[in-house]
Amino acid sequence: MIYNETYDREVLSKGPHYLVGCTKYPQYPIDLIQTDEYWLCIEGKIYGKCQDALQQEIPALLKHVFRPHRDMERKVIADWLLETDGDFLIYVFNKKTKDFTIIKDVMGN
Fold first, then answer.
1. Under 8 Å between Cβ of 38 and 62
2. Taking the model in full, what pTM does it have?
């Protein structure tokens, strides 16, 4: 998966039953955030929000993502995605439940 010599590969997180790695190049941002509950990786760019804001917002959002999907939970998630501009994927590992999810920007394919 190394397309040319400017690309690099990196193991971002691993455990006994999983491994998350990436192929990347210097201009493409990959940010990691860890809390007591979550390990998350933001691939790409979220516009108009500083790193400190994201470190607060995303873990708060994840409390809704990992709850049973009631209408209220879905609305909170949808509202955050609609007001968040960017080209991104967010990979999330819930350390307590061992669940894994991927959140993509609204226009993501």
1. yes
2. 0.83
